[in-house]
Amino acid sequence: MLPNRQINHKRDFHYKQAKKEGYRARSAYKLIDIQKRYNIFKRAFYILDLGCAPGSWLQVAKTIAENNLIKYNDLHYHRDHYKILGVDTKNVFPIENIQTLKTDLTNPEINAKIKSIFQNKLDLILSDASINKSGNKFSDHLRQNKLCYSIMEIAKHHLKFKGILLMKAFQGIDFVDLVRNFKNEFKISKTYKPQSSKKKSNEIYIIGIQKKN
After folding, report:
1. CA 104 – CA 147 distance, rounded (Å)
2. Does 1.10.10.10 match the CATH number of domain 4-211?
3. Catalytic residue among 62, 83, 168, 211, which?
4. Is 36 a catalytic residue?
5. How far is it, in rounded angstroms, from Cα 56 to Cα 156?
């Protein structure tokens, strides 16, 4: 017999919708929701996805990047190709025209790989990366915060001027400090909890628009 948690998951609307539409996870709808609200993929051709397994955000990113090649065919800023790199400690089943790297995003060696692929021209960094929860909300929040600062460090070195960063955080005692530091790096910053996030979850997404120099 399946545990109640697993049964509820299979009854979940977004879980069933993801299966129907071919997404690898329900989390695809979080990114779609954020895109509709903030248009973070505007003129995004070079994209990095941190904590990408099982690949649902990569699927969404690929679809939008392909559309961008047609949509933004002008002199302002255009590319005739896109580059997407996904990073995770878990194996990710291949997606055509997308590179994946199996490593921890806190591994210093990741920087050389990112630079070799994007040459400091990253338009967008996505991160749905999360720590393995222990059940202790306080310690989980602190560990997720630490991960967020690692992601911000990657953005500081590789995201282009006026680029965009989207990352998952957990609400808690140090969340205000995290957002304050985030605001120092971006001209515009927003926090948002997608409709498809579970109501009991303390996850929230921080969006940084127009990275400062």
Report:
1. 11
2. no
3. 168
4. no
5. 25
